[in-house]
Amino acid sequence: MTAASPFMVASDLLTPKPRRWATPGAIARACDPNVRQSPVLDLLDAELVAVHDDRDTPDRLMFFMPPQEGKSQRVSRWHAVWLLAHDPTLRIGIVSYELESVVRWGRAIKRDIEANAALLGVWLMADSKAAGR
């Protein structure tokens, strides 16, 4: 048995792993067939994936779009579900100026994971099922 060289180990760590869902929009449609996709949401998805993959993008994004385009659903809800489906060990914070918004998004994410646990391969721990946690 031969030991792997440090270069092989580094290469394995840096090689992107295949994803079951390419974008947050793809996972949203897999979990809820009523989710709509538009060219604007395609662009938003591409930017979210680029930030996650650290591809020459800033580590922060701001989206300025008209109301009711789906940006909050995509960023606050489906992006979090997408991240957890690819790495259930992540700790994600949903932050807002208002507690009600945070709890609403926490509940939506919690419902999505509970309703699609087998599809996503993510299950909630029994002691952390509160929407605000």
Taking the sheet with the most strands, its summary is: none
Distance between the termini: 46 Å
Strand content range:
under 5%
Parts with pLDDT < 50 across at least 5 consecutive residues: none
Count of discrete alpha- or pi-helical segments spanning 4 or more residues: 6
- What is the number of beta strands? 0
Computed structural class: mainly alpha
| Portion in helices | 40-55%
Using only C-alpha atoms, the radius of gyration works out to 17 Å
The average pLDDT value, as a whole number, equals 84
Shape call:
globular
Order of helix and strand elements from N to C terminus: HHHHHH
What does this structure look like?
The protein has helices at residues 6-14, 24-31, 39-53, 71-86, 99-115, 117-120. Helices cover 52% and strands 0% of the residues. The chain is globular. The chain is an all-alpha fold. The longest helix is centred in the C-terminal third of the chain and has 17 residues, at 99-115.
Please outline the helices and strands.
Elements: H1 6-14, H2 24-31, H3 39-53, H4 71-86, H5 99-115, H6 117-120
Helix pairs in contact: 2-4, 3-4, 4-5
Features:
single chain, 52% helix, globular, mainly alpha, 133 residues
Short description:
The protein is mainly alpha-helical.
